[in-house]
Design brief:
Layout lengths: L2 E6 L8 H9 L10 E5 L8 E3 L2 E3 L1 E5 L8 H5 L5 E3 L6 E3 L9 H5 L6 E3 L25 E3 L4 H4 L6 H5 L5 E5 L6 H8 L2 E2 L11 E4 L1
Parallel strand pairs: 1-12
Antiparallel strand pairs: 1-10, 2-5, 3-4, 6-7, 8-9, 11-12
């Protein structure tokens, strides 16, 4: 089994709902984001490329790619970064992590992992999100875990459930009868940096 995400770049409107839902569900600190929305267009967020009237702009969301052949798990000296045997999701164990950041160096997708340089700081004086989410620890690496705590309860990741445009489809990419497999078979799609040989499980519908 390999759970995966298919993201429809034609439906995504760059609203950042997925990023905010992820942040709240996982009780992320004020300055930390596991999911980011990037503008494919001009030099700044929400700006197009080209000259009027020939303008173009789209969005791409970036988070851990949950690779089938992840580079990060191969370099972690303590097994803190590993693939969940039931879901195929690339996980992070804060109790094992020693903060060496080898996983960050090995990952070809810049910015999808965060190093907790200091104790987590929050605007609110109470926790948000799921009680099943472990607390972040200073001196460790964290990243998207595709809301594994929700998935094991039969729920979709928070980003998928919250998307107002239904631009995100989640499911088992190894099952040819799953909704995501049928969607990928019917639409042209691509992987980020597929030449790196990591075989990312996040696919972008074009």
């Amino acid at each position: 089994m390999q759970y995966a995400l298919a993201i429809d770049t034609k439906r995504c409107i760059g609203c950042n709902t997925c990023a905010v839902a992820c942040k709240i569900e996982n009780n992320l600190p004020d300055t930390m984001w596991w999911n980011r929305v990037l503008t494919v267009g001009g030099d700044h967020t929400d700006t197009p490329q080209g000259s009027f009237p020939h303008l173009s702009m789209s969005y791409i969301t970036l988070s851990c790619q949950h690779c089938k052949n992840p580079a990060c798990t191969k370099v972690c000296p303590v097994g803190a970064t590993y693939k969940d045997s039931e879901t195929g999701i690339v996980m992070q164990d804060y109790k094992k992590c020693i903060g060496c950041r080898y996983c960050m160096a090995a990952c070809p997708y810049n910015g999808v992992r965060n190093f907790n340089w200091r104790e987590p700081e929050y605007t609110f004086d109470f926790s948000q999100g799921s009680e099943d989410v472990p607390s972040l620890v200073k001196g460790t690496v964290s990243k998207c875990i595709l809301c594994n705590h929700r998935v094991k309860k039969g729920l979709e990741p928070a980003c998928v459930a919250a998307c107002p445009e239904r631009a995100r489809t989640f499911g088992d990419i190894d099952d040819p009868n799953s909704a995501i497999s049928k969607l990928l078979a019917s639409r042209s799609n691509y992987q980020l940096l597929d030449e790196k040989g990591t075989n990312p499980s996040v696919r972008f519908l074009s």
